[in-house]
Amino acid sequence: MMASVELLVQDGMVVSMDYTLRLDDGEIIDASDGTPLDFLQGAGQIIPGLEREIYGMKVGDARQIVVAPADGYGDVDTDAFQLVPLSLFPPTMELTPGLALQMRDQNGQVLPVVVAEIRPDGVLLDFNHPLAGETLHFDIEIVGLRPATGEELSHGHAHGAGHNH
Ligand code: ZN
């Protein structure tokens, strides 16, 4: 009799996953599009609500997973708004509410921000993650599984396409 052994998603495995991400209204906002996402399970490389739900899955398994904001990109933080002077923006820039921008803070870190409001005394910027407050609807399929290398385990992330160091 032939024995058959299959790997399961568990901590210390590198998972390759195809996914489509939709919002409540069905709009697709992200998808792997034939290039699976590789990550180290248990290392917090993906959002907690997704990582928690895929334990025990094997290659070929597909599921729908709904992730509440608290297990995704968080709830909208009303303190994460900041009024900045108009002089910070290039005079030619046409500022409109909803405009997505990048800002560099004093430490050189790049932050994505969204223009929330134009006021006479400045521009109100929203520093929340663009997906804060959103319920996320994932369609996922596990397309690859392998044990992580010692180097990957010590780095806390998967190596592979575009990520070798
Ligand atoms: Zn590394």
Please describe what this structure looks like.
There is one protein chain. The chain contains 2 helices and 9 strands. The chain is elongated and about 80 Å long. A hairpin with a 5-residue loop joins strand 1 (13-22) and strand 2. The chain has 165 residues and is mainly β. Strands 1, 2, 3, 4 and 9 form a 5-stranded antiparallel sheet that branches. It has a 4-stranded antiparallel sheet with strand order 5-8-7-6, with no helix packed on it. The model has no long low-confidence stretch (mean pLDDT 93). Zinc ion (ZN) is lined by residues 155, 157, 159, 165.
Count of individual helical segments? 2
Strand content: 35-45%
Q: Provide the list of bound ligands, each named once.
A: zinc ion
Order of helices and strands, N to C? Answer: EEEHEEEEEEH
| Structural class computed from helices and strand pairing | mainly beta
Tell me the layout of helices and strands.
Layout (H helix, E strand, L loop, with lengths): L12 E10 L5 E4 L5 E4 L7 H4 L10 E6 L13 E4 L15 E5 L5 E10 L2 E5 L9 E12 L2 H6 L10
Antiparallel strand pairs: 1-2, 1-3, 1-9, 4-9, 5-8, 6-7, 7-8
Bound molecules: zinc ion.
What features would you highlight for this structure?
165 residues; four-stranded antiparallel sheet; 9 strands; binds zinc ion
Q: Quick gist of this model?
A:
With 165 residues, the protein is mostly beta strands.
